[in-house]
Amino acid sequence: MSEAMPKVLVTREVFDETLEYLRAHCDVDANQEDVALTPDALVRRIADKDGLICSLTDRIDAPLIDAAPRLKVVANIAVGYNNLDVAACTARGIMATNTPGVLDDSTADLAWTLMLGAARRVTEVERYIRQGDWKGWRLQQWLGTDVHHATLGVVGMGRIGQAIARRAKGFDMRVVYHNRKRVAESIERDLNATFMSLEALLREADFVVLQVPYSPETHHLIGQAELATMKRTAVLINSTRGGVVDDAALIEALKRGTIRAAGLDVFENEPALNPGFLELDNVVLTPHVGSSTEDTRRAMAMTAAKNAVAALAGGTPPNLINPEAKNK
Ligand code: DGY
Q: For residues 175 and 154, is the Cβ–Cβ distance under 8 A?
């Protein structure tokens, strides 16, 4: 191993080809046991590193960054980067990167899995069959709600939101959306999507799908008041980040029938989700697997590795979040 190679810490298990690629360019300190590093271990192992490849479960904050005087790049294996203190990175001239694009379709597929699963009560009926309770067919058994021809409300019309909306064409749905900024007219036309306020969307949509990034501005974007604004027959899907929904308020709404059902891939304080969810039948739960297909997770890991290597070679990584860091 050449002395000149930059030193990189990879905090969690990655694929063999990711490591192979990294080892061709860097001196790699890997954690293939995949047990999350304790904060102390992270501080110790990052101390002499030039680059960090981390996952969304690692909190990369100012004290940690201060423990790594040589650090030039933090490459997150995720598109969401609320686990990174980007301002602290920028202040130190450290480039921060994410993995946009490669996971759009897989994440959109999972949002649809939750929509269809919640609408047709898939996990409920699966439990019923497994328990041996199915004694025969009945006309009014396990009645669900139609997805086709319903109104889909997408909150957050970025790349993933658009991929979710695009799939609605095959279901002959009406699409409405809310976004900080209205998207280009050509996109609206292509998706047949109508822009409206969040409040109007909550009133009109049969399926509300959240796809906004988590930030102080989107913390509890959907709480008691917003749930009360939704139709009693509506279904809420959160496959973006825990904290965008007030989980305690959602549990109460699902209990009281304020809305019909929910499909959730992300939770406040995950993996320690609110136990109230486990008592409810009208919620479909998945453990933050939105991007978890073989091809997509491999692509995410490789994207992060390439971002790190590009930064360490003195270039501009393809997915740089904080271009200002380069001028520091
Ligand atoms: C992301 O990339 O932000 C996803 O949540 C990972 O599944």
A: yes
pLDDT digits (tens, 9 = 90+) for 43-78: 999 999 999 999 999 999 999 999 999 999 999 999
Contacts 24+ apart (CB under 8 A), 144-148: 144/119, 144/120, 145/119, 145/120, 145/206, 145/233, 145/235, 145/260, 146/119, 147/115, 147/116, 147/119, 147/120, 147/171, 147/173, 147/207, 148/172, 148/173
CA dist., res. 185 & res. 153, Å (int): 18
Closest residue by CA, ligand 1 atom 3: 80
Residue of 92, 270, 298, 324 marked catalytic: 270
Ligand 1 centre from 291 Cα, in Å? 6
240 pLDDT higher than 80: yes
pLDDT digits (tens, 9 = 90+) for 89-145: 999 999 999 999 999 999 999 999 999 999 999 999 999 999 999 999 999 999 999
Which ligand 1 atom is nearest residue 240's CA?
A: 5
Catalytic residue list contains 124: no
CA of residue 321 to ligand 1 center, whole Å = 15
Q: What is the pLDDT at residue 327?
A: 80
Cis before 271 (ω within 30)? yes
pLDDT at 328: 75
Helix 104-119 / helix 159-167 crossing angle, nearest 10 deg: 50
Ligand 1 centre distance from Cα of residue 243 (Å): 14
- CA 207 distance to own-chain centroid: 18
Catalytic annotation present for 270 = yes
Catalytic site residue from 12, 45, 121, 288: 288
- For residue 209, pLDDT over 90 is answered with yes
